[in-house]
Structure formats: structure tokens, C-alpha cells
Amino acid sequence: MRLPAGRRSANGAQRRTPARRRTAGTAASRAAAEPAEAGAPAAPVTHRPAAEPPGGARAWLVWGTAVAVYFAAMFHRNGMSAAALMAQERFDTGATLLSMLPVLQLAVYVACQIPGGVLADRLGPRGSLLIGLAAMVGGTALFAVAPTIQAAIAGRILIGFGDALVFLNVIRLGALWFPRREYAVVSALTGLVGGLGQVASVAPLSALLRNLGWTPAFLAASGVTSALLVLVLILVRDRPAGFPAPGRAERISVRASLAEALRARGPRVGMAHHAAAMTSYTMLAVLWGYPLLEQGLGLDPGTAGALFTGAALAPMALVPFLARLTGARPGLRRPLALTLTWTVSLGWLAVVAWPGGLPPLWATGTVIVLSAAGSVIAPSLSFDYARDGMPAQRTGVAAALVNMCGFATVVVATIAAGALLDAQDGPTGGEAFQVAFTPMAAMLLAATAVLTALLWRYPRAGTGRP
């Protein structure tokens, strides 16, 4: 007996459903595997592992131990700002050679970004952190007892190598131990703790140097870092028990990875934003902030340290909030990025162009606070843009390029400031710092202009339209 047409159609629909599901699944898998068009937001990856990491107390313990290493790395990276004037007397050197201490450290940090990523892939986060900590312990101890500027430079180079292995692996531990819904907050907290390490390198280290002297202060820092190495050895594991190592992504050459990242507009936006937003305060933190306040504005050491610390602390409360906000509303990235970078750039232009010397303390202090805000907010936006237009399994090179661009700008600005101060017989007053900081202000404006051009018709997140 023939079935009615309606029944036959219903059965046919039921029989065809699996085929449609297979077709849809194939299309989704194909879309996830293909790279997104350069300049457009990357398509979301539809494949998910069978189970996400559980998070919980054990995850917070592992991340807390690792992020303490990042705190220490930031402390070591920026310690020269508080020690700059004492180092100049200890090693009897000019501002140009003195600037080589943090500059070479940052240069090594920049150069080791991509090799550090390869090392992390082979050894895992725990092994990479242990190597980085060992390098920082040895470098800080050498810096503490260095009899000459050459030995001090060697110590800072070791610190730079160790520092280069830290941030990437702390972020990776967050991804391996926490479920996806908690990862954005963990990433924001990682940046926040790093900012606190940057703050701790100024006033506390300045107090240690004044009360204990050069060698005991830096040997104490080396001892604390040694204790962190032991904690990582005992407490940190690469992933929760029962979770296998992630599968290997398709390997392409380093050259092909760099070309792929530079073709996509997202990483280029991230590079310009990082250079415009984080350069000024990072340059102050690694060397010239403390001399600017003390010799440029005439503050006593205690007041200078307190002001610099307060300037960094003020915007930190915004970081988790902004991470949640831009994560929920990606369309806010462009106005926030442009507002922040133009404000900082024009602020420093006003500082270097102010007639008759540096602006009053309230005005210069405001620009420093804005620069600190740019520095702590920059990573969440810069590295978010770096993922746009990139296959999910190859965003590491794009992130390395963003980091390298920002810190390369810091290196150039720091060297230029030292050379210009030397040309004026040292940091002798406000006008000398205005001249010395002019190249930095010019680079900020150039990076902000490039960022504006790249974002002019940048696709809105999730729409593909400008």
C-alpha cells in the first residue's frame, strides 16, 4: 500500500537529516581549518576538546606560582629606573653607556621572543619557566657584584633572556588549567600582576638601595628569585592530571609564519597599537622615569618614588573591567584604542613643546598617569587584535611580532634619550629632558598615525564591515 504524500515526505525528511548534518559538519570543519581572510576577524573554531580543564583551587595555585615569576620578571626588567643614578656613580659612566644596561636587556628580550616560543613548544611551560628563572637568578647576582660596566651589562643580558621565557608560558598555563569562560579574566589578572611588579621596581627597590646598598639589595632580589625557582619545581605542572598534551599544529617555516602574520591586518594593528600605547611609560619604568622626576622636576627621592608608584597603581583597577567589557563588546576596541593612543601621544607632545621647560608637576604627572594607563591596557587590546585574520593554531608568531614592535620602540627611545642627555652634559634640568624625550614623542605620534590609518576601514568584529 502506498503511503500518503505527507507521510512519505516526513519519512524522507527523517532519512535525509543525517546527510544534512554530515554536510553541515563538513562545512564547519572546513571553515575552521581555512585561514580567515587577511584583515578580517578570524572565524571561530568550532572544534572543542571533549572536556575543558576543571579550574579550581589547584589551577589557581599553579597560576599563582607562575604569575609570581612574572611579577619577579617585571621587577628585574624595570629595576634600572630606581638604580640609574646610583649606577652612574658606581660605574663612573655617562648617560649613553648607562642606557645600554636596560637597552641590551630589552634587545635580548625582543630577540628571544620567537626562539622562546619554539623552546616552550618543546619543553612545555614548566621547563621554560625553570630555565628563565635560572637565568634571572644568575644575571641578578652578577649585576649585584659586577666590578665594571661590562660585567653589569652581561648580567642584564642574562636577565633579559630569562625574562623572555616568562610571559608566554604564564599565559599558556592559564589556557591549560582554566576553562575557556575564565581565561579572559585570568589573562587580565596576569597583566595586572605584571604591572604591580613594574611598580615594585621603583619605590621599594629605591628604599632597599638607600638602606642596604647596591650589592646587598640586588643579592636579596636574586635570593627571592631562587626561592621562586624552587616553588615552580615543586608546585607547577604543565596541565591537570588526566589531560593529555594537545595535538601538534601543522608546522610551517618561521619565515612563512612571519609572512602570514604580516599579511594580515590584525597583527599590523596590534603592532602599531602596542608601540603607541606602551612605549612611553615602559621607557620611564626601565630607566628614565625616576631621573625625570628627581632631576627634571626637582623632587626628592621619596616623593619621586611615591609619585611614580601611584601613577602606575591608579589605572590598574580598570584592567579586569576593560577585559570583560571589550570581550563582551568587541566593537569598543577601535574607539578605546584610538582615544588612548591619541591622548598619550598629544600629552607627550605638550610636555616636550612646553615653553620655558617642563610643564608644572600636575601637568607632567597627569601625562605620566595616562601613559601608565596606556601601558597596562595595551596588552589586552594589542594581543586581541593580533588574533584577527590568523589561523587559531598560529597566533603565537603574531603575538611575538606585536611584543617585538612595542619593545623595539622602547629600545630606540631609551637610547635616543640617553644620547641627547649626554649631548647636553647630562640630565641637568627640565629643558634637557624635553630635548631627550622629543624622539619618543615623535615615535608615539607616528605609531598613532599608522594605527589610525589601519583602523580607518577595519572590519567591525563579527560583521566583516568597516
From TrEMBL:
Primary localisation category: membrane
Keyword vocabulary terms for this entry: Lysosome, Membrane, Transmembrane, Transmembrane helix, Transport
UniProt catalytic activity: L-lysyl-L-alpha-amino acid(out) = L-lysyl-L-alpha-amino acid(in); L-aspartyl-L-lysine(out) = L-aspartyl-L-lysine(in); L-alpha-aminoacyl-L-lysine(out) = L-alpha-aminoacyl-L-lysine(in); L-arginyl-glycine(out) = L-arginyl-glycine(in)
Residue ranges occupied by any Major facilitator superfamily (MFS) profile domain in the UniProt entry: 62-464
Subunit record text: Homodimer. Interacts with lysosomal protein GLMP (via lumenal domain); the interaction starts while both proteins are still in the endoplasmic reticulum and is required for stabilization of MFSD1 in lysosomes but has no direct effect on its targeting to lysosomes or transporter activity.
Family: Belongs to the major facilitator superfamily.
General function of this protein: Lysosomal dipeptide uniporter that selectively exports lysine, arginine or histidine-containing dipeptides with a net positive charge from the lysosome lumen into the cytosol. Could play a role in a specific type of protein O-glycosylation indirectly regulating macrophages migration and tissue invasion. Also essential for liver homeostasis.
Listed name of the protein: Lysosomal dipeptide transporter MFSD1
Source organism (scientific name): Marinactinospora rubrisoli
